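cron nightly-structures :: item 1 of 1
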Amino acid sequence: MKNTILTTFTICGFLLTSFYAKAQKTILEVDASKTVTKIQPTMFGLFFEDINFAADGGLYAEMIKNRSFEFDKPLMGWEQPNTKRSSLNKESGSATPIYLAENNTNFCRVEVNNAKGYILINEGFRGMGVKKDAKYNLSLKAANPNGAIKKIIFQLIDKDQKVIAETNIIPKSEQWTAYTAQFTAAQTEAKAKLKITFEGTGTIDLDMISLFPEDTWKNRKNGLRKDLVQLLYDMKPGFLRFPGGCIVEGRTLSDRYQWKKSVGNVDERKTMMNRWNVEFTHKQTPDYFQSFGLGFFEYFQLSEDIGAEPLPILSCGMACQYNTGELAPMDELDPYVKDALDLIEFANGAVTTTWGKIRSDMGHPQPFNLKYIGVGNEQWGPDYIDRYKVFEKAIKAKYPNIIIVSGSGPSPDGEHFDFAMEELKKLNAELVDEHYYKSPQWFRENAGRYDKYDRKGPKIFAGEYAAQSVSGANPNNRNNWECAFSEAAFMTGLERNAEVVHLTSYAPLMAHEDAWQWTPDMIWFNNLESYGSANYYVQQLFSTNKGTDLLNITKDGKALTGQNNLYASAVKDVNSKEIIVKLVNTSQSAEEVSIDLKGAKLGAKGTIIRLASSSTQDENTFAEPKKITPKQSEYKITKGNQQLNLPAYSITVLKLKMI
């Protein structure tokens, strides 16, 4: 009986203590009278990589897969349902005149031998997304040597082979000639295909068969997918890093990304295998190639469109160290260095320069005003440092104002990271790229990561980060709410350390629902729809509320980095005349916060923007794309401290108007 009473008393005492602990408010002090540092306009940006069908089949709105028959298997993507014979020829040695450059040597020779005709079907990128009443622009090149083929009929067919749009062209010329036509779709279909049939018997040659929606971003002909660019634009990103991470390196140096092959006439850009097509055994996609229709000119143009600083990353002469790790010898680095120097000329050079003229001829005589360039992706070890030195010397000699991004390897700690940071500090590196794919717990525990970084050392580019719900490169990783709010907790630490951290970006950016290789990803899409994950809205909240001046926000004189499961950062926006406080509650229960704001006179009204969900496993999906999205409401400013209730598992942005 004694033990029972004692136990009951102990439990009651514990509950009473817990009650008082919960009843206590966390008091935060915000000093608006003193700017700690200016927030860089590049603080929150975007990292684009051609992984998960993000370019061809995604952002680049081309609907035909293998339009120029240049895949390793030249008829990949093309079905021939009424013949077993592959009809394919090389430009060289053909009786048909050559119309393209050396990078486009294949064409399709169709031989129609009987009244049944010949059928050619393109499957698209896991089908083609077609919307009712929308217009689609077809283009192709054809040579009809003997005038034997009288008409080519093009039909969009649905998954049941029903015709949902039709058009045709009359191939009049024996020479290679460009033809165009337009469809209007009679119904919406996510898995449409393009069917081609022929009237007449004989031979005809086809190439560059292309299909784009008329409604593209900024209505550019053969441009970018409108809904996906809109999601990027709505982020108000400070920069756009491209063309990716490991895709820059290649498995070998020969299949690295070479930007010069991605500019000029689209017809003349060399198609090559995408390095992610068979990288992961859990999701191999052998039909994943790069047409480079989305090339460096388009990346620069996209950066300009969405108001972001362009940040290209180039090969440093090292293939991916997870693959071959092939090295360009030190005495053979000149072509790689020249690529970097020529890229700066392409972006910024006068129209009288070699590469500036190419940019101008592509439709952009004004410079792109490039300020940053990255040397290597996430290489490590002495070989990287040796090559970085060569690039730095050459770039600074010719373009002293260009800011060079260097890398610290693939991890945020360990031997490779420590070596890189030590060596880059010796070299007075300007901007060091750090990557972290870690657990949600790691992100919460490392909100103070940059608190003790040397303010006089290299600035930091948090270039790739994403919380992993399971583990890195695991197909079961989810874009769940715990990952998202844990990233937000970490991001308060990035913002609080804006003296050191100048750029940050989540990675990867995009993934096709039916053709992804890596998860999690910020934006998901299929052939018809797209949505932002919970992680997307976290990034958007920070990016659209980054302010101009960093302020101190403290609890008992210390930064809030997880005490009571709370995280916080504060900024001032001199343009909108607002104090903006970001608060993240990672606890399973609501928390009361009192904000003591000093050094600013406040108006009567403010705004609360809140991102919250009741379960840590909640996600946005195609079925519920807005399940976790910001909710905005008016906030009545009170005299004295501002009182807030922070729901469990929530992110709160409090915006207070100054007078």
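cron nightly-structures :: done
Residues 1-23, 91-99 have pLDDT under 50 and may be disordered.
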